[in-house]
Amino acid sequence: MAHHHTPEKLENHLAMTQEEYDHHKSDVYKTTVILSIITIVEVAFALFYEAYLIPKDWPVAPLKVSLVVMSLLKAYWIMFVFMHVKHENKGMKLSIFLPFTLLIWMIISFIWEGSYWNKSHTSQRFVKETKTEAPAKVHH
Amino acid sequence: MANQSALSNPINESGGVMPFRASYGKLMMWYFLISDTFTFVAFLVSYAAIRMTNLEKWPNPSQVFKSIPIHGLDNWNLPLVFVSIMTFILILSSVTMVRAVQEGAMMNRKGVVKYLIPTIFGGILFLVCQYLEWTHLIHEGMTMTNNPFPGSNGDFAHQFGALFFSITGFHGLHVFGGVILNTYLLLQTLKGHYDRLGHYEMVEKIGLYWHFVDLVWVYVFLAFYLM
Fold first, then answer.
1. CA torsion, points B16, B17, B22, B28, in degrees to nearest 10?
2. B158-164 long-range CB contacts below 8 Å, 24 or more apart?
């Protein structure tokens, strides 16, 4: 039995045709341009309200919502093109994205809880301040 | 193809079946990244909750990150410029990484080397930038327990420093890990290991990790600098 244990050379299961390669390559450069443009717009939007380039009394919620939307778009481009989720099969896409649905309520509830805590503790401080002020008025 | 025949037989128990037509290593890298996403989300969600609790005390990012932390440039008021440069460094190093993956798929060793070197360089440059920013902020008096930047009501949210250093630090640790993995990848490629193996799947797997680091930065950037 003259069996030599040589590591088996595998086939290149990632192989692409020249056509696919060219297509994927141009996809990557397109995505680079998209990500750069979104980032520049994001920084501009942030500076609009952070550096008070818009009047202070203007509502900032639309700007903040669009920042979240733009970040989600960036995540989409990074995952679908750079991490080539676009070319994975449906079952794999589902097994990647379904766990994230667990996070939706977690994010909402923690932000909700935080702002509730802020309100209750600000109103408590308000109660304390009025209480300390009240006797002073009586003595005066 | 061998894999194709394994896939067409639903009760093949001899091994070699590829669920989702992806290899074991690649699938496990994806599942690791999902679990890591949960860790980062836990961090960012606690950041959001604590920030909401101290809304009026929270500092304005363009007053905290207002200068380029390089000697001679640190007196100019250039809010968010330095961190935007850091963001671009990370995006560009993600681009060179995905190009390395594509060259690997074409079995082009020189191409993989050509694109891995700027990827590693970008990672190191990002870490240097983070070092400069941290040093600058520590110099300004920001620590894990102290925050010298007041919010809109003139009060100080003392949690700001702890959250900033732990979250950007945890991300920086991932970048550092990525630089190590990419350096290992470069050395193995130069030795011709993947040519002998017959495929460059390791470039794809480590590439997924590297893009994930870029993906997380999108949200760290959003939470600390843009919001």
1. -80
2. B159/B50, B159/B54, B160/B58, B160/B59, B163/B46, B163/B47, B163/B50, B164/B137, B164/B224
Q: Determine contact: B67 vs chain A, CB below 8 A.
A: no
ipTM of the complex: 0.88
| Mean pLDDT, chain B, integer | 91
Nearest CB among A64, A83, A92 relative to B211 is that of: A83
pLDDT tens by residue, A11-31: 788 888 999 999 999 999 999
| Of B148, B132, B128, B210, the residue nearest B175 (C-alpha) | B210
Would the pLDDT of B1 be above 80? Answer: no
Interface contact flag, A67 B218, Cβ < 8 Å: no
Percent of chain B with pLDDT over 90: 79
> Is some CB atom of chain A closer than 8 A to the CB atom of B218?
yes
- A67/B226 touch (CB, cutoff 8 Å), yes or no: yes
Q: Round to whole Å and give the CA distance between B202 and B185.
A: 8
CA geometry: angle A28, B25, B175, nearest 5 deg:
55
Cβ distance of A47 and B79 shorter than 8 Å:
yes
CB contact under 8 A, B102 and A64: no
Question: Least CB-CB distance to B20: which of A64, A74, A92?
Answer: A92
Mind listing the domains of chain B with CATH numbers?
Answer: 24-226 (1.20.120.80)
Residue B88: how many other CB atoms lie within 10 Å: 16
On the question of pLDDT at B201 being above 60, the answer is yes
What is d(CA A113, CA B211) in angstroms, rounded to the nearest whole number?
32
3-class secondary structure, A32: helix
Rounded alpha-carbon distances, angstroms, from residue A22 to A17, A67, B61 = 9, 33, 42
For helices B201-221 and B109-139, give the axis angle rounded to 10 degrees.
30
Whether the per-residue pLDDT at A100 is higher than 80: the answer is: yes
